[in-house]
């Protein structure tokens, strides 16, 4: 036992030591970076003959950051800080020009393994604890050469390194769920990237919304990480004086133009040398932001002319020295030190990713999936139906119940599924852009994870209503009804997934889903028996129509009779509601639903392929 404890302690010490030094020092070099976008047309009838002018977001940014240095990008809102950071992190889509190299090479899958990116918003699952969040991330991002226990030890080492030990068993929380503090959430986000021991770490406003003391702790943590030979680049909005002087280099931006690039401690001296110095002692970052906005102590000065003067001064006084620093950097020396091993695109196997994502999804969604509200809703509707159709022997009533089955269990799973992907879009974008897992493993884990509640609730519903309503008391009829309904639920759920993935907006997807399902219901063969030929095609793609036909087939067979008058019997296939949809050709309905089941989910998968992928 003592030997095992000693082994664990040695492993923890070795793991902690890993984070003290990076495996591959990375020099980030960017030269004349320009980013353009085409403005979107406003309005449906905006038909201008003039070609649209491209909007330039970044206007020739140049700089270099060496291992062991921390670069802070300052500037007012809209200056292009986040755009530049995203571009340097290899996550920017659109027209990005210029040269961005990492140890003299362009961004690759291999470099992605050494790169961490912390977004401004902490995108975390609210119901998971700090430990669970980091352990699941470790299981997904660390290579398969490490065992499960070693990955857990890595996560625990990060928790210790970032000072999260006190809150490691607390849930993350959210807007309506109390959890850890904002500073702790930010450290958890940083911890997720630290798990891979990154050589290059990007952070988008890591101190945003935090008090000065908490911000100081965050930057102090990053300062310790820099000592291990890491390259850290961050955007930051109005840091305190203490924080400002912790930055090795500062890049000041204004409307996409660079106004300063160099050592943080030299910034005030540079602006003083070109005639801009504060009248009173003040926070350097406040003064720099005033300059970036064109605001001086003299109100007579025009803001636009001040900005233009500063841009011109940078080009004449600073740009040459920055380019000289780039020229001094010898790419060849770094090439020799670069890691020459080949990387597979994924850290883990498909099955490992699937199992981890499945367990994480079940932990996070158990509060939502097995909520008392959903169960109560289905139970109330089930007993209400049972009472309304109490031991009904009338053929019209029984057919009405079958159609209600197809209608209710068409709409209910559709609207449950529509919200699935829009709610997880930000998480999916974050994790896919980090190369954390295959889309197929995520999609399958989500599909399988949703099956229990997809199938349990309609099963309970059928068990209650079937026997109370007095439908045929035979096992074959019961299971035929049950399996038909479950089949229909899976198809409707697939349609909801596809709509949500295509539109990615909950409100728009809900409206679209309502219109589509209502069209399917109206063409289902219950309300309208003689559909005009020019619109009859809807019934061939209607989930409700095929489900209704199979449900009728589960209760009635050709040749059966029913009482249609005094001492008169008629064949069930001649009953108007049954005659309009037919009682045979069950195989066609099964095949049609099977095609829809596959097609809708395939459509959802294809629609998700665009999420989290940088377009070139």
Automatic annotation (TrEMBL):
Matching InterPro entries: AAA+_ATPase (IPR003593), ABC2_TM (IPR013525), ABC_transporter-like_ATP-bd (IPR003439), ABC_transporter-like_CS (IPR017871), ABCG_dom (IPR043926), ABCG_transporters (IPR050352), P-loop_NTPase (IPR027417)
Location of this chain's protein in the cell: Membrane
Record's GO cellular component terms: plasma membrane
Entry's family note: Belongs to the ABC transporter superfamily. ABCG family. Eye pigment precursor importer (TC 3.A.1.204) subfamily.
Domain of life assignment: Eukaryota
Gene that this polypeptide is encoded by: LOC107821563
Taxon lineage: Eukaryota, Viridiplantae, Streptophyta, Embryophyta, Tracheophyta
Protein known as: ABC transporter G family member 9-like
Claim: Methyltransferase is one of the keywords in the record: no
Keywords: ATP-binding, Membrane, Nucleotide-binding, Transmembrane, Transmembrane helix, Transport
Membrane topology, from the record: Multi-pass membrane protein
PROSITE patterns named among the record's database cross-references: ABC_TRANSPORTER_1 (PS00211), ABC_TRANSPORTER_2 (PS50893)
Keyword Nucleotide-binding: yes
CDD domains named among the record's database cross-references: ABCG_EPDR
